[in-house]
Fold this sequence. Notes:
The complex is a heterodimer. By secondary structure, chain A is an alpha/beta fold. Chain A has eleven helices and ten strands. In chain A, a hairpin with a 2-residue loop joins strand 1 and strand 2. Chain B is an all-alpha fold. In chain B, helix 1 runs antiparallel to helix 2 and helix 12 packs antiparallel against helix 15. The complex binds adenosine-5'-triphosphate and magnesium ion (MG). The site of magnesium ion has 3 residues of chain A, from helix 2.
Amino acid sequence: MVNVSALSDPQPKLVARAVSVYYGGKQALFDIDLDIMSREVTAFIGPSGCGKSTFLRCFNRMNDLIDDCRSTGSMLLDGSDIAGPDVDVVQLRMRIGMVFQKPNPFPKSVYDNVAYGPRLHGMAPTRGDLDEIVETSLRRAGIWDEVKDRVDQPGTSLSGGQQQRLCIARAIAVRPDVLLMDEPCSALDPIATATIEELIDELKSEYTIIIVTHNMQQAARVSQKTAFLNLGRLIEFDETQKIFTNPSEPSTQDYITGRFG
Amino acid sequence: MLLSYLPLLIIALFGAGAFYASRARISAAPQRSLPGLPGHYGWYGTLWTVVPATLVYAAWTIIDDRVIRNVVLSDFPDLSGAAATLLYVSIENAAAGVMTDDVPMASVELLLHLENLSAAARFALVTAVSVLGFFWGWRRIRPELTARDRVETALLVALFIASIIAILTTVGIVLSLVVETFRFFQLVSPFEFFFGLEWSPQIALREDQVAASGAFGAVPVFAGTLLITVIAMLVAGPIGLMSAIYLAEYAHPRVRAVIKPLLEILAGIPTVVYGFFAALVLAPSMRNLGVDLGLTISSESALAAGLIMGIMIIPFVSSLSDDIMTAVPMSLREGSYGLGATASETIKRVILPAATPGIVGGFMLAISRAIGETMIVVMAAGLAANLTANPFEAVTTVTVQIATLLVGDHEFDSEKTMAAFALGLTLFIVTLALNVVALRVVQKYSERYE
Ligand SMILES: Nc1ncnc2c1ncn2[C@@H]1O[C@H](COP(=O)(O)OP(=O)(O)OP(=O)(O)O)[C@@H](O)[C@H]1O
Ligand SMILES: [Mg+2]
């Protein structure tokens, strides 16, 4: 899996250039430039309403689902455009998976939840292949041992933390390169949160991960890079270490020390 | 005439007066923290002034007709039953100014006199009760009076009585259905009714015709109902469901805001309008089409009625299905789109499975509406009780038969009349069962995402 040339020549996985997003007449994001490196965890932090979710949803074009939302600027995945009108959104969303704030398993069995994407895209010609994909995905999401005896039960019958890991398994079952996570732990208790954080740490060896979080400690723990947004603008983007110890912008300092937000 | 409504006016005036008087009285009392707002004391006074007086008015009005009738008819001790009724009606007519021959003028005068007397007495009594109530309530207006509780209780009682009236009426209707059905089954065996294949309850025009009393096998009637309902659902099911999917998943909010009410207007068109559209436009053109195609389509056909009824119940399917699909959380849609599903894949694999119980509920409500529909079928499907599955023939339905059995002049205890009750009870049980199941299904579904 590991691409040697990518290691020697660190080309960014995702590139955003001059991205602006409008909801109707209201501008939510202003001219954002950002490079996301491969196999790293990038955290988006910032006060509520600053546009973190909006920006995150640009990467897999989820904003297309909102009627009056439009965006300008360019976005590249591995060097090719993903923002233009000719992009195959289905392919794009297979390569960029998403995990949502509230666990949202389909009202189907655990198995069918994970098999949803592979079935959709015809990734498993035989039942055996599908079984294998489901098991690998559940294993990778660190939930296999807990659910292996009840994959036929509804996904909604799991606990919140298990549901969120099921959703992660569902996302990685279509073999994406990138995982977008919008506050994946905000509906979970501290123990379930710790499990997910460990999982993110493991997953970063294979996936490029972008995580939105309101929890400063979480951002510091799991991410290598951190982007601080405020009022729709990218204020600062740097090594997580630097952002949390020695930010160059005073407003970043204020935010992470809890003086506004 | 004026005298008969004057007491109500008096009650209203005194009631309003009592409100202000009681409120003023409590406001004038040494102020402490009162168990009620001044308005509660006002309403308390009003209740005492209005309620007993209104009850007296109602009771008097109900009783006085009978008393007067007895007094007037006591001059004719040898009359009874229908003859007495006939005489009394003509006396009443004469009193109202419609003269007929042979009316005993003395009785007319007596009636008029008694009526005036009664109205005057009622006026006096009601006024007296109202005044008494006023003072009784007014005297009790003290700061210790727990006026808020009392008024709330009175309100509770009023609401309770209203709901009891609704329930008792329903129970009464059901009971009368059951009793008449029971009587019918003593004349015609339930076996014949539920399994008999011939339905021809001829209308007896003369006494001696009753001998040819009809056949009461209701199977053709049930079959006709079923046939028309199936046709209607074949129309309303797909169209309703597809328009619901369009509205819930594809339509822009502004489009939806226009189309949804327009669809619901379909449900507001009087069914008789649908009926004459079916009978005058659809059925003849279908028959002509049949002629062109070499098919025999009778001018009254199950197909015409079913098609039009299907159109009528589209909104029942679409509106409820749309509500239920819209209630499927956005997060499920996003989850599906996020995995690279298209809109139609999301609908097929996530929205519809999640919404199925609710959609089934909507279908059931639509079916029970179709089964109970009368007007369209009377006008478009005919009266002939043919046992057939051919949609081009005329058929009849339960509701149509009830309507035809009950219009016209025949005794109320004839088999024909009672057959209508038996049909009605059957219909009631079927639609009740459908509605109960449908509501439970819908309810169970809506609990799921809370
Ligand atoms: N569907 C929408 N329609 C209109 N405006 C929207 C919509 N979604 C978001 N916005 C606006 O865009 C701005 C950014 O919202 P966004 O959800 O991206 O913020 P966020 O940083 O994710 O906030 P939070 O931390 O609370 O999730 C806000 O001002 C919000 O009001
Ligand atoms: Mg957000």
